[in-house]
Specification:
single chain, mainly beta, 2 helices, globular
Length: about 250
Amino acid sequence: MTLTAAATMPSLTAGQYFAIRDHSVAVNNGLYKESGGTPTTSSITATKVSGSNPSASASEAVTFLGSSADAPNIFYDTAARHVYLLEQNGLGFEGVLGQTVYSKMMIDWKDDAVLVATAPFPMLCIDAFAGKYLIGQDASGNNNGWSWKDTATPATIRTRKLLRNMGWSELNASGITLATYAGIKTLGTFEDSTPGTGDRAYYQFGTDTTVDDTVNFDFTGPVNEAIKCFEEIGNPPTCTFATSSTITRAS
């Protein structure tokens, strides 16, 4: 998709994420990633990241969120109720503290009239020091279905893997726990902590030492990473206990 204007669009860098609001065609609003490589203030080639593909439309005024001087690190898809963490403008594999994300949400829901008007607050902080949170429920206990968003295409977004010092449960709009992530953190140093090539820790579910079912953490060096330890399968649950030692599920 190519956006054109009379040199009135913000200056962007190649590959930058940005968002559009206030277009009369709802599908044209959302998160985009610059994909042409040479954006200008009059022409931007971009790929839609959130929601459905955009629709060709006549010229009209829209609101841009993001520029080369102020590239966003977080995007809220209020229609789908997804939170995206965006690796740009200083946010990378080192990640971000869960409490920092929560505090950012608090500021955004105080200052951004659009968020206040269109969506409930996404999270509940149970214990900031212990890193315990719920996403999909606000501080009043109202369930709303917000969740983190990860994507492989058209852009690689790994929101859950960027959260540090944090464990959480993900609740749907009915209050059912869809998944739980434990925040795993190691103590001490690693012999080789080089990012990308250093020593990599692993984990294992269960205690059967005769089976190599270990799983590597995503990042090398000392661990501060969330691991899924529970997931709701099926709605309603579809597990069948076929025998005393066998569990099957329909999907």
